[in-house]
Amino acid sequence: MHYLDHAATTPVPKAVADRMYDILTGQFGNPSAQYPMGRDAAALVEDCRATIAAVLRCKAAALVFTSCGTESNNWAIRSAVWHSRHTGKHIITTAVEHSAVLEPLKALAQEGYEVTYLKPDNRGSITARQVFDALREDTVLVSVMLVNNETGCIFPVEEIARGLRERKSRALLHCDAVQGFLKVPCAPADWGVDLMSLSAHKIGGPKGIGALYVNPSLRSFRPLLYGGGQERGLRSGTEATAQIAGFAKAVELRMDHLTEKLAHMAALKAYCRTKLLTIPGMETVSDGTAPHILCMSLPGYPSANIVTDLGEQGVCISAGSACHKGKASHVITAMGLPKRTAAGVIRISFGPETTREDIDALFEALKSHQANRFPML
Fold first, then answer.
1. What does the pLDDT look like over 31-43, one tens digit per residue?
2. Phi, psi of 189 (to 5 degrees)
């Protein structure tokens, strides 16, 4: 199998799985228990929190563990508007956010909030100026992702944070950094971001564990779950110690020679783009500069068919157009691409384990698909 869908999820290294197994079978104490096994589990959780926080260059206490990036996004958005409920009901976001951001905002719109959706250009880019032009006195939240999961475009979150401070805006800034963490620079405290969402399974960690950075200045931040008071009372429930340990171990492994790993992925992305562009009709959809995501299109060939056929040939990629009843994804739609281009969008994404042989296999599979499938009329 040739796996080229690292933006969807990543393989779990044996060292991560082994670490989780050790916790599950040997250090399974409840972190809230007062006997030694419980205190050891609590210390483990705090050590893991410190490991992840050090990479983000923030205080460990600012990091709260969640079950996934979707939970982090939903919690951040809901709590942010509650925190600023006396300021207004205007929210700014982009039209190309992940559904874990767009869906809770859609729900808030039904509750009386006004949401401004910033549209990207035809290459998928968003500018800080667009945010500032949309800013109002009653804006309570700005939510902008760090890296778009379909195009690989990096959004100017640091510049947005700086601009909000300069304008003395009362709006909180949330960043969905699920695709950006350990792929591009990511420092919420240094930048002045109020809330940042993370997920473990995008960097070699297990599914079922994420985190939310909460700016310590948000002293009235609303809890997600009420109960036993875990996670400083912000998210009650017994901590998932094995998943937390797996998250931290994945961070440690990814940080080892990270610069070389990112350069490797960027080089493979460039090699892949150059090679695929030799296929007749192939187009580059976006200039996204994240090192691990490449968005291409084979106009006239429906992406859902490409993904299915390549999967049967042992090559795993995704349809950037996430087809549903023939419709392109909201990201591709927002970019305003020609219909034939939009229908043929595919996303190839890379990890440290990806090889040139994987890309060569993709190239051959796409050529086979083109030779043996009728294009869409």
1. 999 999 999 999 9
2. -70, -45
Residues whose CB falls within 8 Å of the CB of residue 110, separated by 6 or more in sequence, listed in order: none
d(C-alpha 365, C-alpha 312), whole Å: 10
Could you give the CA distance from residue 72 to residue 65 in angstroms, rounded to a whole number? 9
Q: Of 161, 198, 193, 196, which Cα lies nearest the Cα of 179?
A: 198
**Rg, the chain, Cα only:** 21
Q: Which pLDDT tens digit goes with each residue over 125-158?
A: 999 999 999 999 999 999 999 999 999 999 999 9
DSSP three-state, residue 328: coil
Distance between CA atoms of residues 35 and 209, nearest Å: 26
Q: How far apart are CA 322 and CA 334, in angstroms?
A: 14
Percent of the chain with pLDDT strictly greater than 90:
93
φ and ψ of 174, to 5 deg: -110, 140
Q: Determine if the pTM surpasses 0.90.
A: yes
How many whole angstroms separate alpha carbon 242 and alpha carbon 231?
16
Q: Report the catalytic residues.
A: 323
Please name each of the domains of the chain with its CATH number.
14-255 (3.40.640.10), 257-372 (3.90.1150.10)
Half-sphere exposure of residue 141: CA atoms within 13 angstroms, side-chain side: 31
d(CA 27, CA 33): 13
Q: Which of 164, 188, 230 is nearest to 59 (CA)?
A: 188
Cβ(174)–Cβ(194) under 8 Å?
A: yes
- Convert the pLDDT of each residue in 284-334 to its tens digit: 999 999 999 999 999 999 999 999 999 999 999 999 644 444 577 999 999
pLDDT at 326: 52
